[in-house]
Amino acid sequence: MQKTRNKYKNIHQWTPFQLLLFYYIAAIALSTILLSLPVAHKPGIDIPFIDILFIAVSAISVTGLSTISIADSLSTTGIIILALIMQLGAVGIMATGTMLWIMLGKRIGFRERNMIMTDQNQTHFDGMVRLIKNIVYVLLVIEAVFFIIIGLYFMKYYSSAGEALLHGFFFVISSISNGGFDITGQSLIPFQSDYFVQFMCMVLIIIGAIGYPVIIEVKEYLFHKRKIKNQFHFSLFTKLTTTTFFCLILVGAVGIFLFDIHGFFKDVSWHESFFYALFQSVTTRSGGLATMDLNLLSDTNHLFMSALMFIGASPSSAGGGIRTTTFALVLIFLFTFIRGGRSVKIFHREIYEVDLNKAVTVTFFAIIVVFSSIIILTLLEPVSLDAVIFEVTSAFGTVGLSLGITDELSAVSKIILMILMFIGRVGILTFLMIFKRKKDPAKFNYPKERIIIG
Amino acid sequence: MQKTRNKYKNIHQWTPFQLLLFYYIAAIALSTILLSLPVAHKPGIDIPFIDILFIAVSAISVTGLSTISIADSLSTTGIIILALIMQLGAVGIMATGTMLWIMLGKRIGFRERNMIMTDQNQTHFDGMVRLIKNIVYVLLVIEAVFFIIIGLYFMKYYSSAGEALLHGFFFVISSISNGGFDITGQSLIPFQSDYFVQFMCMVLIIIGAIGYPVIIEVKEYLFHKRKIKNQFHFSLFTKLTTTTFFCLILVGAVGIFLFDIHGFFKDVSWHESFFYALFQSVTTRSGGLATMDLNLLSDTNHLFMSALMFIGASPSSAGGGIRTTTFALVLIFLFTFIRGGRSVKIFHREIYEVDLNKAVTVTFFAIIVVFSSIIILTLLEPVSLDAVIFEVTSAFGTVGLSLGITDELSAVSKIILMILMFIGRVGILTFLMIFKRKKDPAKFNYPKERIIIG
Ligand SMILES: [K+]
Ligand SMILES: [K+]
Q: How far apart are the first and last CA of chain B?
C-alpha cells in the first residue's frame, strides 16, 4: 500500500483524491451556476439557493433526490441542463473510478493491448483524456440507440413530437446515468402498466450501474475474433461483481414480493407483481426511478430496500453505496472464517488480504456514517424512523428513492444528505484518503498479546 | 486455530461447544420444570408453557425480558427459584466463558501461581470445578455484603422485615447477575428518587458485567503484597475491556442526556438528569433494570440505546452482545487501517490478526442476525419500528430493557427472541463453532487476483 502510494506520488503532481475533490467541487459549482440561471427556471419560479445546491449535488452524484419538483420548477432549458449535469456526473465517476484503478497499477483484466493506457510511457493525463473519450463514446452510442427507440415510442404518450423527444431524451439520460430524476412529476408511475418502457429503463439502469470495466470486457468479448473466443477470460472482478449484482436483483425482487405478499401484492395480478417487484429491486441498485408510490409497501420492505440501497452498485459505475464487490468480499470472508478456512478463495482465485481489509473498513465506516446520519435526522425531523432510514441509505447509495420526506427537511438535514451523496458517490475508500498519514507508520513492533473476543 | 482445536480434542471427550450446549439445554430444561411447579405460581395463576419457557431462557441467559408480570404471577417460592436460576445463569456463563479461554491455552494475565489451573497435569474437569467454586465464592461474598446493606435499607420501604429481605435478596441477585428481572412490577421506577439504591444497583451491575477475569485481576491486585505492587501488570485484556466499558458508560450517559435535552430532560433538575442518564447508560451494558419508563425518551435515544445494547458487556461476564473487546478491536482496526497502518497496536501491545478477524466476524454476523430478526419482527408485529429494534438488540445484548411490547408478541417472535438471548449469551464465536469444518481446509492455494473495493 505504502509503496504504491509513493509510486504515484512521484509521477504525479496531484494525488487521486485531490483530482477527485477538484473535479467534484468544480462540477458542483458549475452545475449550481447553470441551474441558478433564470432561463433554467419556469417563469415566475424562484428556487432557494440551498435547493439549487441540493439538486446540483444530487445530479452530479447521480442520486436523484430532490427537495423541489423538477417538473414544476425547471424550464425546458433547465431540464436539458439537468440532463447534461447527470451525464457529466456519470462520465465523471466512471472515468475517475476506472482511472484510479489504473493509476494504482492494477490491471482490470481486459487485455493490455485493448487497454486505455497501452503505452506505459504516455502521461496519465493523456490516458485520462483517452479514457473519458472512450466512456463518452460508449455512452453516446448506447444513448443514441435507446433515444431513437424511446423517443419514437413516446409519441403515443405525448401530444407533440417535441415533447415526446424531450421526455425520451431525459428518460434515457436519467436511466443510464442512474440519475433518477424525473420530469413527469411522479417518477415512472405514469408507465406502471407499460412493461416495454420499464424493461428499457431496467436495461439502461443496469448498464449504468454494472461498472464501466464490465462493459469494456463485455464489449471486447463481443467483438473478439471468433477463433480466439474460447481463450477469452473474464476478470475475477467482472465475475464477482456481475454475479453479486444479479444475485442482489433476484433476491431483492423475491424479497420485495414476499414481504408484501399479504399487503401491496395481495390483489395485484402475477405479471404486474412480477414487474413491480423486479423494477423496484433493479432501481435499488442505484437507478432511483420508481413505478409505484413506495409508501404503499410495508415497513419491512422499507428496511429491506434500505439494506439493498446501502449495498448499492458496482465499483466504477454510476452507482453508489458500499458497492457489490465490498458486500461480496465481506460475505465470503465471513463464510470462510466461520468454516475455519484461513485464505479467502472465489472463482479459483485467492483474494488479497489487503482487499479484504479494505472491504471490511469500507463496510464498517459506511455503517458508522449511515447510523450517525440516521441518529441526527431522527433528532431534527418529525417523520417516521423508517422514512429516515430509507432517505439516508438512499442518499448514501446515490439511489434517489424516497418516501416523500425530502422536501420537508430542514437545512441541516439537507446538508447531511448532500454529504452522504458525496461520500456515496466518490466511495468510502477514496473519501478516507484524506485521513491517511503522510509518512509511513512506525516500523517498530510491540509484543503481541491475545484478546478475548465475543 | 486448527492446531489449538486438535490439541484440546485429544485431551477432552467433548468440545467446548458441546459442553456449553449441554449445560444450556440442561439448565433451561431444569428451570422450565421448576418454574412450572404449581408452588412457584400465585394461587389461581396459570402461565402458558411458552411464557414459562421464555422466562426460563430469559433467566438462564440473564436477560430479563419477560412476557408476563413476575410480580403478578410468581409466588414467593417462585421468586426465590427465579433468583436462583439467574444466579445459576451468571455463574454458568462466567465459568464457561473463563474456562473456554483457559482451555484454548491462553493466559488471562494474572500470575500463573494464582490461576485456577496451577498444575498443567490436573484434568480440566478438576480445573472447571475449582473455577466454578472460585466464582461462586467471589459472588457469594459480594452478594452477602450487599444483601445485608440493601436488606436493612429496604426496611424503610416495606412494611415487614420479611418483605424487605425478599426484595433485597432479589434486588441484589437480579443486579449482580445482570438478570434484570423485577418483582416490583415496574422495574426500579419506585426508586427513581433514591440515589442510594440506584448507586448500589449500578455498582452491582458493573461487577456482573465487567468480566470475571477483570474481577480476579483486581482482587489479586488489591491483595497483593505491598512491596511487589509496583511490579503488578494488568493484562491487555483487562486494560482494553475496562477502558471500553467505562468509555461506553460515559458516552452513553452524555448521549442519552443530549438526545433528550429538549425532551424528557427539559424540566428535570440537574441531579435527577444526572442519575437518569447515568443509570440508563449503565443498564444498557446488560443490567436491564430501569429507573424510568423508556417510552418517555425520544426515537433517537431508542436507536442510540439499541446501539449500546448491541455492543453489550465484557467477555466472560454475565452480559451479552458483541462484547466490549469486539467493539474496541473493530474501532481500533478501522482507525489503524484508515490511517494507513498495517499492524494494530494498543497499550504498547500488538493485536494478533486472528483476533481481529474474530472481532470482524463476530460484528458482521451479529449485524446479520440482528437485522434479520428485525425484518421478521416488523413483518409479524403491528408495533413501531423503534420498539422492534429496541426489543431485538435488548435480547441479543441480554439486556432485558423493553418499550413494553414483549407481552404482546406472537409465539414466533417469542421464539426468535429466545434464540437471540441464547446467541447473545453464549457469544457469537462459540455459537459459530457448529459451522466449523471438521477437517482442515484444503492446503492448496489459488493464484491471487485483485478486486476493486468501494
Ligand atoms: K440514482
Ligand atoms: K440483563
A: 31
Cell of residue B352, nine digits = 494478533
Domain ranges in chain A? 2-111+122-435
| Dihedral pair phi/psi, residue B294, rounded to 5° | -70, -15
CA distance B454 to chain A (A): 5
Q: What is the ipTM of this complex?
A: 0.85
Would the CB atoms of B453 and A315 count as touching at under 8 Å? yes
DSSP for residue A313: S
B317 and B97 Cβ atoms separated by less than 8 Å: yes
Tell me the CA–centroid distance for residue B64 and ligand 2, in Å: 5
How many angstroms separate the CA of residue A378 from the nearest CA in chain B? 6
Residue contact A2–B340, C-beta within 8 A: yes
Instruction: Kindly state whether A120 is in contact with chain B, defined as any CB-CB distance less than 8 angstroms.
Output: no
Q: Over its length of 454 residues, how does chain A's per-residue pLDDT go in tens digits?
A: 344 444 444 434 556 566 667 778 888 999 999 999 988 888 888 888 999 999 999 998 888 888 888 888 888 889 899 998 988 888 876 676 666 655 554 444 433 333 344 333 344 556 666 777 777 888 888 999 999 999 889 888 888 888 888 889 999 999 988 888 888 888 888 888 888 989 999 999 998 888 877 887 787 777 765 555 566 677 777 888 889 999 999 999 999 999 999 888 888 888 888 999 999 999 998 888 888 888 999 999 999 999 999 999 888 787 888 988 889 888 888 888 777 766 677 777 777 777 788 888 889 999 999 999 999 999 999 899 999 999 999 999 999 898 988 888 999 999 999 999 988 887 887 777 655 544 444 445 555 555 454 4
> Does an H or E element contain A351, and which?
strand A349-351
Q: Which amino acid is at A329?
A: L
Give the sign of the dihedral formed by CA B402, CA B403, CA B404, CA B408. negative
Give the list of residues 6+ apart from residue A383 with CB closer than 8 angstroms, or none: A405, A408
Q: Any CB–CB contact under 8 A between A14 and chain B? A: no
| B431 contacts B423 by C-beta, under 8 angstroms | yes
